[in-house]
Amino acid sequence: MHESLAAPAEAQLERHRVELMAFCYRMLGSADAEDAVQETMLRAWRGIDRFEGRSALRSWLYRIATNVCFDMLEGRKRRARPIDLGPAGEPLAENLRTPEVPWIEPMPDGLVVPDGDPADVVAARESVRLALVAALQHLPPKQRAALILCEVLRWQASEVAELLETSVASVNSALQRARATLGSLQLSSTTTAPSIDAADAELLDRYVAAFEAYDMAALTELIREDAIQSMPPFDLWLSGRDDIFTWWLGPGIGCRGSRLVPAGSANGAPAFGQYKPSQTGNGYDPWALQVLEVEGGRIAELTFFLDTERLFPLFGLPPRLDGGAESS
Predict the structure, then answer these.
(1) Dist CA 257 CA 278 (whole Å)
(2) What is residue 211's three-state secondary structure?
(3) In the chain, what are the domains?
(4) pTM score, two decimals?
(5) How far is 9 from 5, CA to CA, in rounded Å?
(6) Strand partners, 120
(7) Cα 250 to chain center, whole Å?
(8) 290: which strand partners?
(9) How far apart are CA 70 and CA 88, in angstroms?
């Protein structure tokens, strides 16, 4: 590329990074979306001299990103959440298993939700909810792409047909099959659910204080009776507040005395870095990224993502906390 064109071209490509990240994340269900976007930008950078402008730059980038995602998905197992794999288990340590399953990974809103009109921000958050991203993984890649492009991004079927190099009839057929699959999972690409806006600051402050104090009476007021909890990479998930508390006071008692650090929002939901008291008695070690789903003013779902080595840097969380580690 001619040097005089480099800076303007880079700026044009960068303007689309967040929306491309959101698209690739919905397609892949993991932080691999970052690699996909980097590869998309690299291919676009190398080919921009040949870009003839017959289609919009945005459409051209989506074509590249879609092909990158197809390449990355080839031969890979479907990503899932623990609740996708079977019924809830009893809150017993012997039920902890780590199967060879690629798990859905959380994503900071800041990487996939563009700034703009508040209504657009809410819609963008809803389109990356953990449950919806997991449901999308049930679809074959081309159905997945067609559904995201048509129903999330509001492209015309003719535009998607051109991108996928197929017919409008094939796109409409793919959409019909994709909708049927999501319907069987009791979800749709336009299903709405409470986002982070429903999780008011007072509720979150009370949760942090109650969890750090390990105050089950206070937590009872904040967590729904029918709440669920999961802890990837373990496939065990718990159904009901009673079982959750049985776990917290039994096999999970090591979480007593933990500290929570706000991590912004993940997938349209509040997120916190959890640090457990260090066994050395000095400070706190990373344990989990907690993502909380809030409904009706109470916590309905808690996901403890335990891959802190991968996730804490992504969410800008410190590797550990200093200070005494006495239990509250």
Answers:
(1) 10
(2) helix
(3) 3-184 (1.20.140.160), 196-324 (3.10.450.50)
(4) 0.89
(5) 6
(6) none
(7) 29
(8) 272, 304
(9) 33
For residue 145, give the H/E element and its range: helix 141-147
pLDDT in tens, the chain (328 residues): 443 345 566 777 888 899 999 999 999 999 999 999 999 999 998 877 766 555 688 899 999 999 999 999 998 899 999 999 999 999 999 999 999 999 999 999 999 998 877 888 888 888 899 999 999 999 999 999 999 999 999 999 999 999 999 999 999 999 999 999 988 887 655 554 554 555 688 999 999 999 999 999 999 999 999 999 999 999 999 999 999 999 999 999 999 999 999 999 999 999 999 999 998 888 999 999 999 999 989 999 999 999 999 999 999 999 999 975 443 3
Q: Which residues pair with 285 in a beta bridge?
A: 276
DSSP string, 176-187: HHHHHHHHHTT-
The interaxial angle of helices 157-164 and 57-73, nearest 10 deg, is 60
Could you give the 3-state DSSP secondary structure of residue 84?
helix
Cα–Cα distance measured from residue 204 to residue 264, given in angstroms and rounded to the nearest whole number? 12
- Residues contacting 1, CB < 8 A, separation 6+: 9, 45, 48, 49
Mind giving me the DSSP string for 32-58? HHHHHHHHHHHHHHHHGGG--SSS-HH
For residue 244, the one-letter residue type is: I
Burial class (CB in 10 A: 0-12, 13-18, 19+), 229: buried
- 134 φ/ψ angles, rounded to the nearest 5 degrees: -65, -40
Question: Which two structure tokens, joined as six digits, stand for 186?
Answer: 């009791």
